Model the fold of this input.
Amino acid sequence: MSRGRAVLASRVGLIVGSIALLEILCRTGVINPLTLLAPSQMAVAMVDLLASGKVTPDIERTFSTVAIAFALSVVVGTAAGAVLHAMPRLRRALDPLLASYYAVPFFVFYPVLVAFFGLNEMPLVAIGFAAAMVAMAISTLNGLDRVPPVLIKVARMHRLGRLRTLFLVVVPAAAASLMTGMKLALAYAFISIIAGEFILSGRGLGYQIAYAYNSFDNKTMYGLMLFVLLVATAMNSLLHMWEQRLLRRRARA
Amino acid sequence: MSATLVRPARRRSLALDQLLIVLALLVCWQGAYAYAGSSAITSPFATVAYAISMLEQGWFWSNVGATALAFVSSLAIASLLGVLAGLGLGLWRFAGDVTEPVLAALYTIPKVTLYPLILLLFGLGLSAKVAFGVIHGVIPVTLFTLAAVKGLPPVLLRSARAMRLSPRQTLLHVLAPAVLPEIFTGLRVGFSLTLLGVLIGEMFASQKGMGFLILNGINLHNVKLTTAVVLIVVVTAILANAGLLAADKRLRRQR
Done:
């Protein structure tokens, strides 16, 4: 346990140290303030920006887009994973496509999607969904592959019906993988939607960062960047902790 | 192993299935074209014809060259940095445990938001593109290398010591073969992400390259150009990844 504590302390030290170093470099003018704001100034800019309410519509827009894309991709991805697991022939044929899926830069499809859905949040939802759904499907496949056959046998011995086998045996056994899938899906949806807004949208956090950059508004830009980074890290750490807990529970079982 | 044991008939049916999937994708594409019309997307046939006609033109190849240069440079930097950092952090267990979650968190942040910072640091042009490719690719390479070294069975190192191998022999004959397949997987993932980073970089900070062509096509409403370049990029990415995947499988089988 003491080693674990030392690791944690060093990690906090590393992060705090890097921020402090950055602060010193900025304050002493080694880093040009036109290039990078000091972390403390970024934090102040972020708080001011959030308090002013100027970006609230953009925050709502981005988060609702991410939420819709995430929810869709979890539902469809899990279903797709289950279907592929049940159809080995289709799975074998799709395997190279799944393996190369993330080598394709999706946002290049954005103009096509705009023509399809019109200029609203739908194209961004579609991009986030496309980025997140396959990660969810692959994680579902991994999870289903790793359900120990003995558990299925036990379920059969207890004469559980299909639904009860699914919810009492399969889902708990695959829970950790499903959690990994959701973690990836959320991160991918967030990344691709921000990127989409950044490149080709008129609203949302990504757009506001690009806009602030183009108008040399460093305060707004770094305030928003810090906000996005904090939100992404917080979401991810939360899901990571949950995942670790599920993994531990599985290791014990 | 399994690939060589697959019966020919089954392999033929697999090829047929995959052909069917390609056909299904083409039908979807044609359907999208029929639905959205030529202001959004060109038909598969027209796109392929235009893509082939582009292959004969000088301006196209100079853009390919620009992307290739940026991509090769950033892949080289990302691989070198990532493998060295991963080996270091893997062998020094404590540092690895300290930094791994931090790296994993960095991996999941939307790196596009860092783009303005990169531009301010590197200016417009090649170095910014390369830097953007590197920040996308270096973390997965580091994480995979780190995992490879950490997951090394301790018995390997113990037997190396039992056989009194020198550090150099241990490295060459024990460590390297054991971690190579995992590192290769990391490089494959890094390959895709570096390409993604370079393409995004070209969309803002460049007057040349495939990413620039795509964005230029969008801005000028040149649907034919955008669709053809997208097709070429996607097909190249999938083929390169399939090649790396095959090499990856072979490396793992050899072990």
Q: What stands out?
A: The two ends of chain B are 11 Å apart (CA to CA).
